[in-house]
Design goal:
This protein is of the alpha/beta class. Helices cover 48% and strands 14% of the residues. It contains 8 helices and 7 strands.
């Protein structure tokens, strides 16, 4: 699919993977809408969430590339807010051609220490959020006889890890959802694929997960991610948001690829 003049909606687009995908698609010619919480949230996580200023900054960068940009605040776990975002985009930029479901939460902890509240929050964002966004956008794609949906899963959606039961369960669910929806929408010329990132130096890793890795590689948290990459990733480095964005661009452009869960992890699954 040619991206010039197309409209893309990217959830969790204020920074990290979402930001990189937004800028990459804009460079390829798409007009881009980024959504994120943007302000205070009820979610309790061990790392800093994005801000309203983060959203504004990304929108400005997209505009500087000569594309139409829109930044909207919204919670993907709430039906009314998701529908409001989709309606606003259609009114101001036109129908959505590309949906990238990137919003996500991660948590680490042994099962017996995990709370029901944490389980519900992770599942709400990582799984229900994708369901709600797809349900709101797909009718437009069916009407236009085509579209692209990309769901951000994880290598944790292909292989379970101790201490990550809830997160792994949510990302396995994303892959199953992706495959089923790909079958359902193929007759409408809508492709549905997932990307499975490995380890990235985003706020989620820097502020939270690096501490969990530290005991595995027996080094301080500040060194854990790099050490883990050297030991467990054949290509010897962590992934960057731009690595994931390259995969997203490919899946947007590809006309005959659907139902795929594409790992971008430097071969980590092979270790």
């Amino acid at each position: 699919m040619e991206l010039k003049g197309k409209t893309a909606l990217i959830t969790g687009g204020a920074r990290g993977i979402g930001k990189a995908i937004a800028l990459t698609l804009a460079k390829a010619g798409a007009n881009v809408v980024i959504s994120d919480l943007g302000s205070s949230s009820d979610f309790k996580v061990g790392y800093k969430l994005s801000t309203k200023d983060d959203l504004k900054t990304v929108a400005e960068e997209i505009s500087a590339l000569g594309r139409k940009a829109m930044a909207v605040e919204g919670d993907v776990t709430k039906t009314a807010e998701v529908q409001a975002i989709v309606d606003k985009v259609k009114t101001e930029l036109g129908p959505i051609d590309i949906l990238v479901n990137n919003a996500g939460l991660v948590t680490i902890g042994a099962l017996l220490k995990m709370t029901e509240e944490t389980y519900d929050a992770v599942m709400a964002v990582n799984v229900k959020g994708i369901f709600l966004c797809c349900k709101a956008v797909v009718p437009q794609m069916i009407e236009r006889k085509g579209g692209r949906i990309i769901n951000i899963s994880s290598v944790a959606g292909k292989k379970g890890s101790a201490g990550m039961t809830v997160y792994c369960a949510s990302k396995f669910a994303v892959i199953g959802f992706t495959q089923a929806l790909a079958m359902e929408l193929a007759r409408h010329n809508i492709t549905v694929n997932a990307i499975c990132p490995g380890i990235l130096p985003t706020a989620m890793w820097s502020d939270y997960l690096s501490h969990a890795l530290a005991h595995l590689v027996n080094v301080p948290a500040s060194e854990a991610t790099e050490k883990f990459a050297q030991q467990q990733i054949p290509l010897g480095r962590t992934q960057s948001p731009e690595d994931i964005a390259q995969a997203a661009l490919y899946l947007c452009q590809a006309d005959n690829v659907t139902g795929v869960s594409l790992s971008v992890a430097g071969g980590m699954e092979l270790s």
